[in-house]
Amino acid sequence: MEIPAGLAHRVGRHTGDLSRAVFRARRAEGRVRTRLGRGPEPVASGERTGPSGCDEAGGRRSNVLLITVDQQRYDALGVHGQQIARTPNLDALAAEGIDYSRCNVQSVVCMPSRSTILSGQHPYTHGVRANGVALPSDALSVAEVLRRSGYRTALVGKAHLEPHFDPLQRFSENHLASMGQSGPWYGFEHVELAGHGPALPFHYSDWLYEQHPEAVAGFATVLTGEGGGDTGAPEVHHNPIPRELYHTDWTADRAVEWISRQGAAPWFCWLSFPDPHHPFDPPVDEVRRRVDWRDVPLPANHLSGDAAEDVLGGRPAHWLGWRRGTFTNPEGGPTTVVPAALTDDQIREMTAMIAVENELIDDAVGRVLAELDRLGLSDHTDVIFTSDHGDLGGDYGLVFKGPYHVDALMRVSLLWRPAAREGIGGTVVPEPVGLVDLAPTICSIAGVDVPDAMQGQPLPTAPGSGRERVLTTWDSQFAKVGMHLQSIHRDGLTATRYGATAPGGGGRFRWQWPIWSRGCQVPSYDGHEGELYDLVDDPLQRVNRWDDPAYRARRSDLLADLDDHLPPERLPLIRATGPA
What we know:
By secondary structure, the chain is an alpha/beta fold.
């Protein structure tokens, strides 16, 4: 059964309208509460107890600027082989700092990965095992650890620590702006939130509605799959918004404004750009000025026709099912998209739009770093850059994300430029690391003891650390999908073990699931399926060696190692309460 034409778009539009109506009601409530002296309850905050500006030796404590993007591939940067987008500022950051060439995320979707960044824990332990699971209010937070030691803390941009599909604004992330609040929240004293356009009730949306209402209608709506642009490519849209009003520049501007007000106090700022996650709707003037999609080559790992069928046919069934549209990939992208039906030109246009979004991010990063120089802060500010996960981006003829544990989704850029006074940089670290290592690293930079509950380790600053492995897990947000994957990368091999299909902590979503699952044939796995790729001989990961007798011993060794290093689980499981 096909979804009627335009249904997903209408649902998205009406959800946005409802969200704005609830926003106005919440704002009125917030004004009343303010008059009564009763603001919303803070999330994870307490007294600041540490020194304000000096380390134990009496020197100035280092600031930390953590820059993240959403759904950016490892090869999105020039320094990592990008041929379309120009990223001179991030390339320079890599050259001046430490470039971790094998950083794997601990989850290939937003909420679990972002919760790992904040907590320094694996999804099994912090409990956000899938999108739609809210990070518990008592979760470990590196922002709170630093705040208690005397740091000023801020999060500017996309958070996604609580479900976004929340039109009634039950979660604090979705009503901070409407209540006129900017924190405290999960250890951040100051919060200004943005999403993928104005449909969600964040600070950027409110600013756009109030200051530039004429720009609101130019955005696409995420997850509708609606075709646009020149080729009718899904989630592509020509947005007439001026660049200075787009959320990339707004996010950078707000971060710079906050940083400039901190004076001599040490600070930690998480600057989180919503792009290059779909929908692909950057300012159309920038698109026309920067790239012509007709000149864009297909991705190096793009496959179509029989070649795609042959490669995906050697993997668990949902890979080929998604290509054909029999499995609608409800946990990774618009369910209306059938990858096999995408034309080469549509892939080219999507790739071009992503490249423009990445260039705009690079420009914004350059402005922020220049402002650090102007304010005299670069000498004692550590800068870290990464993405929460990658994007299939046309590999194997597939787009977006989902339960697919390959480098396109698992491997991301991780750059760390230590404060100039440290004299560390200009090196590449090839050993495997993960986003679980960010929170311990930030504690180390700040001179704060790493909490025992953090499971990562401070990042090495040079090759030769002896690190051997990095783990990634997947658990479904929909009970009726019920997929569970566990992956280990070690010695140039990536092994993924499938668990038996089971609801786990997935939600039932009695009215959303019937819409998102129309026409979806969910495969059932018995726990014997898997994938094994030899990245030395097969860097594009086209040959699944799971059942290859020549790899049987190595597979067994990897799975034993995986079992030895799986993190402890938070029980009972926290159930998904929103579909995204």
